[in-house]
Amino acid sequence: MADLKRILCVIACLVLVPAAAYAQASIAGVVRDTSGAVLPGVTVEAASPALIEKVRSVVTDGTGQYKIVDLRPGAYSVAFTLPGFNALKRDGIELAGSFTATVNADLRVGAVEETVTVTGDAPIVDVQSVTQQRVLGKDILDSIPAGRNHANFALLIPGMTGAVDYGGTNNLNLSTLTVHGGRLGDQRVTVDGMSISATSGNGELSNFIPDQTSTQEVAVSFAAGSADQAFGGVQMNLIPREGGNVFKGSLFATGVNSSFQGSNYTQELQDRGLRAPNSIKLVYDVNPGGGGPIVKDKLWFYSAARWQTTQTYVAGLWNNKNAGDPTKWTYEPDLNNPAVLPLIQQSGNTRMTWQVTPRNKVSGFYEHQYRVWEQLTPTIAPESATKYDFPRNEFMTGAYTSPITSRLLLDARVSNIVQGWKDRFPSGGDSLEFTKPLPDVFKSLISVTEQGGSIPNLLYRGAGQTGLGPFIRVQGWIASAQASLSYVTGSHALKIGFLDTWGTRHVDYENIDSSLRYRFNNGVPNLITQLATPYGFVNNLKSELGVFAQDKWTLNRLTLNLGARLDYLNIKFPEQHLGSGVLVPNRDITFPENNYLGWNDISPRLGAVYDLFGTGKTALKVNLGRYVIAQRLTSAYTDMGNPVNAMANLVTRSWNDRGGLGINSDYIPQCDLLNSAANGECGALSDARFGQPIPSTVSDPEMLHGWSKRPFDWEFETGVQHQLLPRVGVDVSYFRRWYGNFTTIDNLLVSASDYSLYSVTAPADSRLPGGGGYAVNDLYNLNPNKVGQVNNLFTLAGNYGNQIEHWNGVDVTLNVRLRQGTMIQGGMSTGRTSTDSCDIVAKIDNPSALYCHVDTAFLTQVKFLGTYAVPKIDVQISATFRSVPGPNILANYIATNAVVQPSLGRPLSGGAANVTVNLVEPGTMYGERSNLLDMRFSKILKFSRYRTALSLDLSNMLNGSAVTTLNNNFATWQVPTGIDLARFAKISASFDF
To answer: 78-116: per-residue pLDDT in tens?
Structure first.
């Protein structure tokens, strides 16, 4: 394989090249004599069982300063020796994440053989680094009542936004997190510094779920990233367990079913229209692991396996009695068979570590996972949910590390993640009943989306319809190579390096018998969607390269974090071909190879930390950084830039089904679907270029190559971190994030003058602002003579005017690390987003300025987690608390021609039966807050080397029933479609030896 050869070549070359590496912890400080004079030449040794080489040593420079960098998490002791002075040893230094522990020393003149040992509180304030980070070590990961998934842990940090977990029921979902107004695509998850991002979702999504038994700690960085970080979003690094000279192992197991769950289905929820709550059917997680020596002091291994299943009932959704019946066009719920969302994941992994010499270490890692899940929601009937199967889901890494000297450190790594996935229909399957593929009859059934009915916007009847096209097949891989060279003196820690990533994504949408979808409104057909299936495309990421330099420079009490990063992105499309399909019988197009995208950006990272009183207990911090926005193989650029996707592959047309004789609907369009103009029962196509060898969208070449063309954001952060008491710290910070290089689409065949103005009167409703009855103005409808005329230009919004988006907010967090197993972390985060595109919409196509400027409300989160060990009885109590805002509420009103025509003066163009109008300004109405308290009670049993913990978890202990999702369709406005899972008890056990 060409990609494998490339990886092997990179491994051979990396050790000679300086490049970027993942951040680890450091110890730094100043050594003085008792008079206060600095002492150069002092030997400083950091010792810990966490270091395979056991001891790392440096020498203080001419200013008396030292730095020991790239230290693994764990407990350290630091020894200071200088001829003619008493030796000093400091115990109890706890390191985690990228925290820099300040350990100063005052040496007294005395005999060399005398050693003074000091045991004190570990530093809790980082007076050298600006990076905002929270670290959850293995003791916390094993103790708190949260699902054993990196995203579930990170979501407990104030400011994080993502899918809420209830006691492990969200372990297998594709969780993406944002913070402080960040973009979804900017999240990165790494294992031992190497990204597990795949080809989907700009890299933030991965169907690879890291194993928790193999994880020593989870470090979550969410602000003020250094120059080795390309993106400004959430960065999670999972530090792995490596094994050692003593074999150690563990086993974790837990499970729960519906018998252990109560009910929070209240009369109020029933009155609001929730027909049945979401609830648990079955959840289990079994995760053993162990490792030890193969050759003592030379070669170690660590291996783990995991079996997980999650089955949950979907709120208000049942299996369709009419599923598979070609004569039926309605959804009839089978109230004896509620819809079940199934997820399965099984995995096995092994890490090998070889200490070649005391200063040279090589490691390798491989994990294979098997995964099955369905894209099932409260508005997708089970027969229509795409059923995903992953025959290939692999992650492999290799690493070489070496502290060449006490000042020079080298780190080089490579990785590859390979994923192949497909819709399980119509072939393939698994022995588990609820994951079997549907019968072949579903391939011929046309899917229906119901605008009205009891479940507005419900998709039902046809299978495999939840993607852009049906029956998807995706293959892809992403490989990375990175390395770093660090040169560390007492006052400087300079790191230079690069990270390069490359890969490919191949997508195929298979053919179906009709290549059609229908839309009904209360059972009456009104819209047809036509698909140009079959078709497929290939996107090649040739290079996502970042080269950086980062220096941490300490001047007395001031530490400057100065860095700069060069980013280069190159995306190419190979030669591709489109053949004929059911609705495109004459299509035969070959697209030549295209070097589509080539961007260059330089991003500064500027930060400063000031030790206010020189005690290491109060740090003033300020940071300003520029970041590029993630743009990979599924971004707007590649989606619209690939010549296959630039074609009109999906179009709509209105449909007035008169049953041929004008009496009853026969659900057969009496028209020529290959004719783009209005004919028979069908209106004109939304894009007349459907089936023609002419692209509907062209990307502006001026924005595709050159410097500073890529979307970007700036982040500013300032705050103070202070130690209130020993082991008790508080952090107060202000954040601002703003964006640039927005894009827009301009239909060059249509101008603002081609639209007609109209308004809609909101219905009377006490829940609407002012009770409703107001006019929603500034609405526009395309003139009939312009329907189907499409020639889109994808270009920078800045060519038309100014567009803004920014987020402003404040975090206040507390960190308490007391002895005897007591720990509290958490706090409050609040902020709001402001957007304005009014200058743009006034100049392109539809000129409506409705809601073009939005200032959301300030959204406030409160989150805490804590553990407490009850003395003498070996019982540990832990808890998590989350209070988060409810969902944003819109009011999507379906305005028929009868409502629109008095203002517009004519029916809606294109024969459209209705238009959807939002009656509520976005960001002004929100649902009720969700307040969740989870608790765990664990009995610890110890015998010799063996430790067992038997735990009882109570999830949603207060049994709240806050609405988490609701229907924004005004016909069933604010009907709940999901609530907090009802309180349930879960038993788990862990065994360590």
So the answer is: 999 888 888 888 888 888 878 889 999 999 887 556 677
Interatomic CA distance for residues 584 and 764, integer angstroms: 47
Among 538, 541, 656, 630, residue whose Cα is nearest residue 591: 538
Kindly compute the dihedral angle of the four CA atoms of residues 227, 229, 234, 238, in this order, to the nearest 10 degrees: -120
3-class DSSP state of 681: coil
Domain-located, residue 117: yes
Q: What CA–CA distances, in Å, run from 559 to 426, 486, 554, 623?
A: 61, 17, 4, 12
- Judge whether 30 lies within some domain: yes
CATH assignment of the domain containing 80: 2.60.40.1120
Rounded Cα gap, residues 791 and 746, in angstroms: 8
Residue position matching structure tokens 């993640």: 417
Nearest to 837 by CA among 824, 821, 849, 820: 849
User: Considering the domain boundaries, does residue 109 fall inside one?
Assistant: yes
Specify whether the CB–CB gap between 20 and 548 falls below 8 A. Answer: yes
Q: pLDDT tens digit string along 397-415?
A: 999 999 888 889 999 999 9
User: Rounded to a whole number, what is the largest CA-CA distance in the chain?
Assistant: 110
| C-alpha closest to that of 578 among 563, 588, 593 | 588
Q: How far apart are CA 372 and CA 376, in angstroms?
A: 12
3-state secondary structure labels for all residues of 341-369: EEEEEEEEEEEEEEEEECCEEEEEEEEEE
Q: How far apart are CA 964 and CA 886, in angstroms?
A: 6
User: Does some domain include residue 495?
Assistant: no
User: Are 215 and 149 in contact, with CB atoms under 8 Å apart?
Assistant: no
Burial of 108 by CB count in 10 Å (0-12 exposed, 13-18 middle, 19+ buried)?
exposed
Based on the structure, what is the number of domains in the chain?
Answer: 1
- The angle subtended at Cα 782 by Cα 779 and Cα 784, nearest 5°, is 140
DSSP state of 772: B
Extended strands (E) in 451-534: 458-460, 472-488, 492-509, 516-521, 524-531
Angstrom distances, CA of residue 339 to CA of 311, 317, 698: 10, 6, 42
pLDDT at 15 over 50: no
Bridge partners, 700 (sequence order): none
Beta-strand runs (E) in 404-468: 408-423, 447-450, 458-460
**CA-to-CA distance for 955 and 168, rounded, in angstroms?**
9
Domain that holds residue 109: 24-123
pTM: 0.90
* Rounded alpha-carbon distances, angstroms, from residue 817 to 148, 726, 872, 938: 22, 9, 20, 20
